[in-house]
Amino acid sequence: MIEALRVQEDRLLADLENLAGIGATPEGGVHRPALSAADLEARHWLMARAAEAGLETYIDGAGNVSAVLRSGVADARTVLCGSHLDSVPQGGRFDGALGVVAALEALRVIKEAGINLPHHLEAISFTDEEGTWGGLLGSRALAGQLTPDDLDNPRGDRHAFEETLRAAGLSKKGALQARRAPESIHAWVETHVEQGLRLEEAGVPIGVVTGIVGIASYWLTFIGRADHAGTTPLDRRLDALRGLAEFVRQSRELVTNRFPHGVYNCGIVEVLPGAFNIVPERVRVALEFRHIDPGKLEAMREALLGLALHVVEVEGLGLEVEAKGIQEPAPTSRDVINAIEAACGALGLRYLEMPSYAGHDTQVMATITRAGMFFVPSVGGASHNPREFTRPEDCVHAGNVLLHTVLRLAGVTDSTPK
Amino acid sequence: MIEALRVQEDRLLADLENLAGIGATPEGGVHRPALSAADLEARHWLMARAAEAGLETYIDGAGNVSAVLRSGVADARTVLCGSHLDSVPQGGRFDGALGVVAALEALRVIKEAGINLPHHLEAISFTDEEGTWGGLLGSRALAGQLTPDDLDNPRGDRHAFEETLRAAGLSKKGALQARRAPESIHAWVETHVEQGLRLEEAGVPIGVVTGIVGIASYWLTFIGRADHAGTTPLDRRLDALRGLAEFVRQSRELVTNRFPHGVYNCGIVEVLPGAFNIVPERVRVALEFRHIDPGKLEAMREALLGLALHVVEVEGLGLEVEAKGIQEPAPTSRDVINAIEAACGALGLRYLEMPSYAGHDTQVMATITRAGMFFVPSVGGASHNPREFTRPEDCVHAGNVLLHTVLRLAGVTDSTPK
Known about the structure:
Distance between the termini of chain A: 11 Å
Shape of chain A: elongated
Radius of gyration of chain A: 24 Å
CATH superfamily of the largest domain in chain A: Zn peptidases
Number of helices of chain A: 13
Oligomer: homodimer
Strand content of chain A: 15-25%
CATH topology of the largest domain in chain A: Aminopeptidase
């Protein structure tokens, strides 16, 4: 009875608890930056747990760690599931970790049930999802999207990165060879904590992700004139900070009214020359905005940059705009959404369809295979900090929905021959 | 005929030109931070010019450099005049330099006229007016207001300061012994470029300074919550940057409407944690405001801090206020103002009374003696940069008004016996 299969709650929760002990912080979170000693220890722990369960283990050239349950079918492809074990600095114990533990548990349950698999199953932990050295590094390597340039220009210090790779038994060359043929992959599914409030507020246990929002990033620089802040009358100043102030005020209204499903942020501000007694000449602000709809993302770009131009015209300032990067929206696969929703239906769990406003490995996987993702609630929406918390029953839901989604994606039914 | 005395225009302008060659920058300004090689060279140049003119020269323990013309009268006191030779980094050639050259020239003319002086005259260049190591350092030393603590905690590196003092032949002990008895000083007068637009716009050559504005400085910190800028809906954020934006916008209106003679500035901004994708949690801003009237300065404090409190209440934010320092308004002496205005009258030069919105050594001298100051126009109001420019005729006016002010303050009239 495939429909009756369930994860072992105690085992799944004990794994989460044990994993949270690796790189544990006094505040109750974890500190496991990618390829740090704690991250490496977590990966060894995963390999050991997989081996105990009789699963094959595998590490690719990018340091992605996998547990594999093979199909006996000749032309079988692979249903991949998982997430990541690394954390942001001083992060929480659920982000990424839940998806890896749920994937491990799903494979264990399927192995224990002795099911004949039409396709291989693989639970994977991707390297450096959080971007200590390069965001989504492991999934980009697997998708063949990592370039020598990415590896030569990591975030942080280049030599430290090279040393860290070496210490982890990895190499740039190996990372570039981690690509898998897309045709070898049958589908991808990830479970993750929501990092937001929508599920909690709706009282719904599962969020089925319709896509990962696109993210556009810009540096805007408002340019005025550096005058003496004593001797220059107020009405003679070209104060670049006034440009920022008007932009911050009006942009909030603009996005709220015109782009109700979009979000944006001004997260970094730099003022030059930067003295108590000098009127700000250059105010540089980091602008980021997100939308699930590519057309709306472009419309947000036009509206926000148009607003900046309007503000500098009114204030008599100059403006410099530097595009920092764009990450296109990544819609998920309707096949995988259907599989997740069918799994929820079979388990009697309500779900909501929703975009993901945060980036995930799923956005990379969506470019090479049918990819999908679902969320479970984060209490209070806490994310990327030690207060991150997902209730035990929701962690168990994550495991069961993943289990039944993977079974559906692998084509396992009650009529599958044992 | 005392009234007929005039500075030698060519000599004064040539001195200004030669002085501008010391520490000259490619942009046409000067770079003479206090006690730098260029500053020391400028001081040697001043000593040499004074000696050539047959004036006594003197360097006190704080490195203040003087040219002295002695009275033969037994109980003579000293009429001090001058300014400073140091500049801000990459500064202009008139700020401070004009006041020193005008004072030197005034003493030369008086010496050449062979006048019997009822009081000693002294042209002085004060050390580090601009605050490379400590603002108004030389005048504070002379006024007895420099403390060992000031010298142990210079701006910049302490060891570099000690090394710099040594290299200039100075010491902390010497600087603390530079105090003069206030009763030895008869009056102080300084001429300086305006560093503003008021004289130029009024078409008036002389600004008689009624006082130096008081300056209050605060750090204000707006406190919100650091949330994920993707997953947190806009209406759930506590964005500290919104506090700053509203404060910047509303404070301009407040000061313009309620304090027409006050100015203020938000010159430094620091945002934490400071990432594209994290909502600002702490936004710290450097607030400075100035007024000539002590009561109005206090009213500005109440109004601006009240506005900050109002803003955080509306935005749901927190506020931290840290007083950084206050410098009380320094009214100038009516005796010196009268002498300056009488000199202008005798020279047929129109004048305006006005406050100084910038700090000057005069504010220190005002605490120990009758002190006064006058401005000549700065073209375009340029200040603290290489574009600083004062027309030759205005430099000559500075010299002549200083000459006749000093003569009046020293009690020299046509009936003074030769």
